[in-house]
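F.,

This is the one I mentioned.
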């Protein structure tokens, strides 16, 4: 196989100390009533004050340059913090997108004045970001986006809409992809530009889209003559396509890509209790072994990022295998629960929690790039197409 690589990286000893600190912090937050780790919805809830306390600990933007408030720590340190927060169902939604994606984009492509103003506020846990890429006719095919930014006096005017924008209703800013020129014959990806959009500007409207899980996560975001100053262009005008790919490895390989339904495993273990049924023992063993393997692959990608590589194909593999696994987990938990002999907790409590994970499972293979798109990337990376 051409260049596929998963180095067997082990987390350094200092990560264990950090893990202990994060666990202590989260357990104090739980005792204080900030969130309930067994509430499946708490992971996606918005908690501004919690975000600020995470910021005070230096756990937002922890890999970023110190000039912008970061800690210049390693991706492996960040990995540990993300993993602990996700496993504990901590309410990271307020800062997570800014920490993982928007901040690093600004560091690479924004002008200094924007960086000086925005990045330290993200690090303090004060700002929430959303991602404005998808449109009704451009999801997988991002480069078909048609919502326009037109030049005007001193800046740009945006008209059109974005869809499936997670958490837009709570976001302070969006990094949005808008059409600034038609695509060219030579390059159909030409003509799109990234902008930093203040979500409180006049002309920006969020229309909620209901979900079967009962969450209120999605929005259609409508822009009507929204004025954006010139210095809010992020990167090259018409050249946003060049900026997209390097970010994908960061977006696709983290522990959040296989831990979204992890609570179903916790609930299953709690429900079946001490059991000697061979189907439950082997089923649980299989689930844990698969999880362990996924985690090793994901840590490996984090280690390669730390060394300055861009493991795009490996990251796509982690996202594909990870999301298929987390999608199947609640179903497998339900099947295994049927074999339980001694029941520690009533079935209806297990069923209620499992119900939530079953309802969110379909989305995990769509968000951040569908399974089919990822497999196309993997096939291309392996020289198969
Ligand atoms: C929970 C969740 C959160 C999201 N949050 C955001 C967000 O914050 N911001 C944002 O911009 N978007 C967001 N999205 C949108 C998401 O990025 C898109 O839904 C996704 O990229 C797919 O696009 P689409 O829905 O238009 O489907 P389409 O692109 O129309 O795809 C439909 C089907 O066709 C398949 N398909 C498409 N093209 C190909 C191809 N070339 N080869 C093979 N198969 C193909 C797809 O795999 C899929 O099965 C979110 C989605 C979800 C589910």
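My design for it:
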């Amino acid at each position: 196989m051409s260049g596929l690589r998963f180095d067997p990286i082990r987390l350094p000893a200092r990560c264990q100390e950090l893990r202990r600190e994060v666990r202590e912090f989260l357990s104090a937050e739980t005792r204080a009533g900030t969130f309930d780790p067994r509430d499946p919805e708490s992971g996606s809830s918005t908690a501004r004050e919690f975000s600020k306390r995470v910021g005070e600990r230096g756990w937002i933007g922890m890999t970023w340059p110190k000039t912008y408030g970061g800690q210049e720590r390693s991706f492996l340190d960040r990995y540990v913090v993300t993993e602990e927060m996700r496993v504990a169902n901590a309410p990271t939604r307020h800062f997570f997108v800014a920490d993982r994606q928007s901040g690093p984009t600004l560091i690479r492509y924004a002008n200094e004045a924007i960086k000086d103003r925005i990045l330290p506020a993200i690090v303090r846990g004060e700002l929430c970001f959303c991602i404005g890429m998808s449109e009704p006719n451009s999801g997988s095919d991002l480069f078909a986006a048609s919502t326009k930014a037109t030049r005007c006096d001193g800046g740009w005017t945006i008209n059109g809409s974005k869809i499936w924008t997670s958490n837009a209703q709570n976001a302070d800013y969006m990094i949005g992809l808008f059409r600034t020129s038609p695509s060219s014959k030579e390059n159909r990806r030409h003509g799109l530009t990234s902008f930093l959009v203040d979500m409180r500007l006049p002309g920006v409207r969020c229309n909620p889209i209901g979900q079967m899980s009962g969450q209120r996560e999605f929005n259609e975001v409508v822009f009507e003559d929204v004025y954006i100053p010139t210095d809010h262009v992020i990167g090259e005008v018409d050249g946003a396509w060049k900026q997209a790919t390097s970010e994908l490895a960061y977006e696709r390989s983290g522990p959040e890509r296989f831990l979204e339904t992890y609570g179903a495993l916790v609930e299953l273990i709690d429900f079946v209790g001490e059991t000697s049924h061979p189907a439950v023992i082997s089923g649980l063993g299989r689930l844990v072994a698969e999880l362990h393997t996924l985690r090793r692959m994901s840590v490996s990608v984090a280690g390669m990022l730390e060394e300055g590589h861009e493991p795009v194909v490996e990251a796509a593999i982690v996202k594909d295998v990870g999301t298929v696994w987390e999608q199947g987990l609640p179903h497998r938990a339900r099947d295994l629960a049927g074999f339980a002999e001694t029941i520690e907790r009533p079935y209806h409590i297990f069923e209620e929690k499992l119900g939530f994970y079953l309802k969110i499972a379909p989305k995990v293979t769509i968000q951040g790039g569908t399974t089919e798109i990822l497999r196309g990337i993997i096939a291309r990376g392996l020289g198969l197409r």
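The pocket of flavin-adenine dinucleotide is lined by residues 130-134, 139-140, 164-166, 363, 366-367, 370, 372-373, 376 (CB under 6 Å).

Talk soon.
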